[in-house]
Amino acid sequence: MIGRSKSPAYRSVSTRNGYYCTCVAFGGIQWYYFQTHLEGTRDRGERNDAGHLTRETMALLFDPLPIRSITLKNRIAVSPMCEYSSKDGFANDWHLVHLGSRAVGGAGLVFTEATAVSPEGRISPEDLGIWSDAHIEFLSRITHFLKSQGTVPGMQIAHAGRKGSTQKPWVGSSKLSQEEGAWVPVAPSAIAYSDKYPFPCALSKEGIRGVVEAFANAARRALEAGFRVLEIHSAHGYLIHEFYSPLSNHRTDEYGGSFENRTRLAREIVSAIRKQWPEHLPLFIRISATDWKEGGWDLDQSVELVKQLGPLGVDLVDCSSAGLVPDQKIVAGPGFQVPFAERIRRDTGVMTGTVGLIETKEQVVEILAKNQADLVLMAREFLRDPYWPLRAARELGHKISWPAQYLRAAPPDTPAREPLDVETFKAKV
Ligand SMILES: Cc1cc2nc3c(=O)[nH]c(=O)nc-3n(C[C@H](O)[C@H](O)[C@H](O)COP(=O)(O)O)c2cc1C
Fold first, then answer.
1. Residue 10 falls within a domain, yes or no?
2. Can you give the pLDDT at residue 27?
3. Which residues make beta-bridge pairs with 115?
4. What mean pLDDT is predicted for residues 290-308?
5. CA 374 to centroid of ligand 1, rounded, Å
6. Does some domain include residue 426?
7. Residue 276 to residue 208: CA distance in whole angstroms
């Protein structure tokens, strides 16, 4: 998870003896985290005599992933990334090129950034939004392009809760002034995230009903815009997470107090969305599996929540963490959130995605070979290299399709890419 304030700064070096040493600087404090490299940790991945993962094992990366009627052409997804580049919530050329280049690069699934279900659910005034039918048209252009590359278009829908009404990060991430267009954000309880953030208003029950309705309407519009995977953003200290964590939810009504009450909003949103989002299409949810803070939300509660959300129609849990409180104590390193995905998958039987400091094909393959997650999402590595899947396949000698326009640069006998089949939503590799 990348918090917007006091976000951790990571520095990783891999040493010759097979260890990663990651220095995490967070809020002025530094942790050192050592993690064994692939050697000795793999249980299903087959190795050749030289001790390297075999090509066959490496090809796990490009195993198709069927979920309901959709088949992702590989296990690599572009994680949602706020671009802070919209006006009044509208997508534009930036979003088309940003998301489109990652589809050209071969990702099986490309997610939009956190897309606000209502204007007050934005983090900043420049967030992408889907609170009006007028937003659909340009988004359709984007989904059309992603499908032309055999990539499944996914939308993450979000409500920022008490972390709304702030500046975009490169301006400062502080609360907006009136001149900058400040609004009063909403939250389960009237508790601000920090002094730098605005003071929120506690949602009334009617307000909660409005939020549930906004998520359901957003799902309907996402479908109309051509998205075929929908992800509910329920992580990183935004509204739904604020409800389920006892640190930010001090309510005394049926939305606060007990585990059942704090998680009620999540269940209501999933159920309302499933009435709009067709049965044959996949629904994901991103959660923060832990608050990294004593007395907060934790992995055991996450497991219980997922046990409830699976039967309501959630197909895959995208396991992130943190973001709820500024004094969290994260211990991060390569793949540090993988154990959350592994435990949730094992204890609930619901598919999981993992994200966070995953950069190399060896890391991805290890996760898949050990059945720790079904899907790997990457964010910053895709900003460094939008063509990560094409490069990984080329380095492995594994054949995947390239855009016909680029075939002259592709390895010999590379097949030309075909668009996503609109009937079956299956993509050719
Ligand atoms: C520029 C940027 C914007 C992000 N915006 C979102 C977002 O809109 N929704 C979300 O759930 N996570 C967001 N994240 C978090 C990423 O999706 C991801 O979980 C995190 O960066 C860890 O993955 P990584 O180590 O591969 O970057 C953002 C991260 C970055 C770097």
1. no
2. 34
3. 157
4. 98
5. 19
6. no
7. 18
- pTM for the full model? 0.90
- Candidates 81, 318, 324: which one to mutate for ligand 1, based on the most atoms within 8 Å of Cβ? 81
Q: 């959630």: which residue's tokens?
A: 314
18 falls within a domain:
no
Q: What CATH number does the domain containing 276 carry?
A: 3.20.20.70
pLDDT > 70 in the chain, percent: 86
Per the structure, how many domains does the chain have?
A: 1
Q: Structural domain of residue 238, as residue ranges?
A: 54-326+334-409
Average pLDDT of 188-214? 98
Distance 413 CA to ligand 1 centre (A): 35
Closest C-alpha to ligand 1, atom 30: 81
Would 43 be classed as within a structural domain? no
